[in-house]
Amino acid sequence: MGVTLFRRGSQTDAEAERQAELSAEDLRVLLEIERGQRLLLEGAYESTVVALARALESKDSGTGAHSERVRQYALGLADAVAPELLGDTSAEHGFLLHDVGKIGIPDSVLRKPGPLDPDERRLMETHTLVGERMLSDVMLLHGAGLKVVRSHHERWDGRGYPDRLAGDEIPVGARVFAVADTLDALTNDRPYRAAGSWKDARELIVSEASQQFDPEVVEAFREREQALRSLQREFAGNAALN
Ligand SMILES: [Fe+2]
After folding, report:
1. Could you tell me where the beta strands, DSSP code E, fall in the chain?
2. How close is the Cα of 6 to the center of ligand 1, in Å?
3. What spacing in Å lies between the alpha carbon of 128 and ligand 1's midpoint?
4. Can you give the residue ranges of every domain in the chain?
5. For the whole model, what pTM was predicted?
6. Exposed e or buried b for every residue in 139-170, given b needs 16+ CB within 10 A?
7. Angle value at C-alpha 186, between 185 and 190, nearest 5 degrees
8. How far, in Å, is the centroid of ligand 1 from the Cα of 18?
9. Alpha-carbon distance 109 to 174, whole Å?
């Protein structure tokens, strides 16, 4: 009787062990499939974001590879002052899509080869809020990404838009991005002026510490300037090859 019970117990234990092994294997396979599907989805999403950024650039003439360059500059600066943004794909997509709201701005304003009048300027400034609204249903942009889109024209001294935030009230991703965006704007052609030199851009950025820009981000720019310059040359080299 005791032996029979022991045998029964052994068989049950062995069976349970096999089941557990099978379950572990099944779980591993399921996790692999899930991981593969997630990577596919992320790849598709990334391609869509890049395509959208490029579509915008074809409308906002003269900006070339602006979105891609500012993404790289912003990541370089974030590495120094806000490393938490580096692992945040929302922030990175926000860097790429920061000006997506310009899709709603008429070409006559967007490509005007001269200074904007007050009405045109007010219209242009709506691109931050329009962009945020356009992307508000995209879950992967929630958080740092949407904050970059809304707040990338705020100024450290509180004279920016759309909310006139000042200092640390401005989301850090937007503070980092503002320097990256200005650096790229100053060193590339715009509809209303030709590209300026890197040296002039550096001087302006440094002189705007604590006014337009977060002084810590400006300090990071000074520290990382050579790496950013190399990135610019790399982009210019690629453009020359294309
Ligand atoms: Fe903008």
Report:
1. none
2. 76
3. 6
4. 60-241
5. 0.79
6. eebebbbbbbbbbbbbbbeeebbeeebeeeeb
7. 60
8. 60
9. 24
Which residues make beta-bridge pairs with 209? 213
Summarize pLDDT for 141-168 with one digit per residue, the tens. 889 999 999 999 999 999 999 999 999 9
Cα 181 to ligand 1 centre (Å): 8
**CA 150 – ligand 1 centroid, Å:** 9
Instruction: Tell me, in angstroms, the distance from the centre of ligand 1 to residue 94's CA.
Output: 11
State mean pLDDT over 215-242.
Answer: 89
Two structure tokens written together for 185: 């704007």
How is domain 60-241 classified at the architecture level of CATH? Orthogonal Bundle (1.10)
Residue pLDDT, tens place only, 38-95: 888 777 777 777 777 777 777 765 555 888 899 999 999 999 999 999 989 999 999 9
Give the pLDDT band of residue 11 (cuts 50, 70, 90): low
- Amino acid 176: pLDDT: 98
The three-state secondary structure class of 10 is: helix
Round to whole Å and give the CA distance between 173 and 169. Answer: 11
List Cβ<8 Å contacts ≥24 apart for 169-175.
Answer: 170/214, 171/144, 171/147, 172/81, 172/82, 172/85, 173/74, 173/78, 173/82, 173/85, 173/91, 173/94, 173/95, 173/144, 173/145, 173/147, 173/148, 174/147, 174/148, 174/150, 175/213, 175/214, 175/217
The whole-number pLDDT of residue 180 equals: 97
For residue 100, report the distance from its CA to the centre of ligand 1, in Å. 8
